[in-house]
Amino acid sequence: MATTKLEQEINSFLLGFIDFLYAVIFGFVLQEVYEKVLLDENLKRPDKLARVLLVFGVFYFLMSDWIYGRILIARNPLKGYRRFFTELAIAFSGYGAAIEVTRGKIFFLVYIVLVLLLGAYWAHCTIREYPESEDKRELRVIRFLQPFTAFWGSGWCWTWYRLEGDIFVLWGAIFLLGLGWLFDFLYDLFVPVKSGITGGPGVRFVGKKLMIEIRRLLKISVNEGGKNNAR
Amino acid sequence: MLDKLVFLALGLVAVVTTYIALHIFTAKLDKDSRQKAVGR
Predict the structure, then answer these.
(1) Long-range contacts, A162-168 (Cβ 8 Å, 24+)
(2) A203 belongs to a structural domain
(3) Which domain holds residue A46?
(4) Is residue A193 a part of any domain in this protein?
(5) Which one of A190, A214, A223, A229 would you mutate to disrupt binding with B, by most B Cβ within 10 Å of its Cβ?
């Protein structure tokens, strides 16, 4: 925890600055989805649906990333400025993803890949700042998993660009959403979230009891009272 | 149709390899922490 009142105050205004940036991004996403997608009369319905679905997916990804980041910082406050600047870079990359997804470009995945890689670096910095943190296991999983996911994300993006071009279509959007959900599911499978508000939103559509049952079937042993997951 | 199959295969490979990698990695993490706990 932050040791002095001054450190707590500095943490508070640094996080306030980042939260403001995220608020701008979320406001921008909402504005763009109306102006460039829903109210665009030249866009065909399947293309509109594809963009709305992926905007929803990117919005959810950035929102949960922000929530988990805040939960982890509440438990492991900033000690220096490295994580703060990494957070800024993550917010900038999120902005890029939001712009590209409302334009219907597959390159939004490049920015998602950047968010994932920066998130892994952020987790690495947190481990270095808090070598004995209660979240160490989760942070190590994040540091391992996110570059892995980034690799597959960039592979998917490159293959799409080579075979289909730079614009995504409805079936690709549905497929990407499904894939995103599966990766979220895998994360929760191996890093159980705490129940209640301190655990974050967790994977959608799978309750805690069902998840425990799935773990039992797959013979995955984890601490069910687990800590937070995050980036 | 072929392109859809390519993406389906790519997605499947991504999910399965990630599952296996996470399985191995978390098992190693848990083994390390158990050994550390015994060491104490």
Answers:
(1) A163/B3, A163/B6, A164/A106, A164/B3, A166/A105, A166/A106, A166/A107, A167/A104, A167/A105, A167/A106, A168/A50, A168/A54, A168/A104, A168/A105, A168/A106
(2) no
(3) 5-169
(4) no
(5) A190
pTM, full prediction: 0.90
Closest chain B CA to residue A157: B7
Judging contacts by C-beta atoms under 8 Å, the chain B residues touching residue A183 are 15, 18
pLDDT tens for chain A, residues 1 to 231: 546 899 999 999 999 999 999 999 899 889 989 988 899 888 899 999 999 999 999 999 999 999 999 999 999 999 999 999 999 999 999 999 989 998 989 999 999 999 999 999 999 999 999 999 988 988 999 999 999 999 999 999 999 999 999 888 999 999 999 999 999 999 888 887 777 787 788 788 888 888 888 988 988 877 654 444 444
**How many domains does the structure of chain A reveal?**
1
Residue A55: inside a domain: yes
Task: Answer yes or no: is A120 within a domain.
Answer: yes
